[in-house]
Write a structure and sequence with these properties.
211 residues; single chain; Glutaredoxin
Amino acid sequence: MATPLKVEFQFDFGSPNAYLAECAIPQIERRTGIKFDYVPVLLGGIYKLTGNMSPAESLRGIKNKLEYLALETQRFIRRHNITRFRQNPFFPVNTLMLMRGAVAAQFEGVFEPYFRAAYHHMWEEPKKMDDVDVFKAAFTSSGIDIERLMARAQQDDVRKRLLELTNDAVARGALGSPTFFVGDEMFFGKDQLRDVEEEIVRQTSLVAKAS
């Protein structure tokens, strides 16, 4: 029996492009019948391990580049009818608490509500989510037992898991977020989602032919 196709969305809540990409994932899942695995990684750790940096830093001083990226972003937003996205005025936000919380939420079986709340408070009603008091108030307002998750997030297995996921992403070729893996094929950035979907269809077809 053929192994089911594994498709990963590697994300850090601090990446606006990961937020935008995730808005399009449900449409791809409906069209292909393949569910994405949501994999938390620490973007700061990836940058440190690869020597990469955010576009705001790496493209500073390059005439027209950031303006063009902003234009591409608006096109993406229109294409996918994204209506709730707002730039976070506190960007960049240190996401260590958020990402450990995501791993803790996976361990505790409450990932979906935690994930939705985190993105809501980062990119829909944006807040300074690396401020502990703001962080607690935001998740509490969304009905999350954040005190329990914060305590869980401090445990060694959560810390170790986030580190392992981040190191594994880099070992497989990741250099930022969002990164997608369709089987062993890697795609970086929200603008590669069309290619991601094409690869899902291609590999699904191959699996069907082999079975």
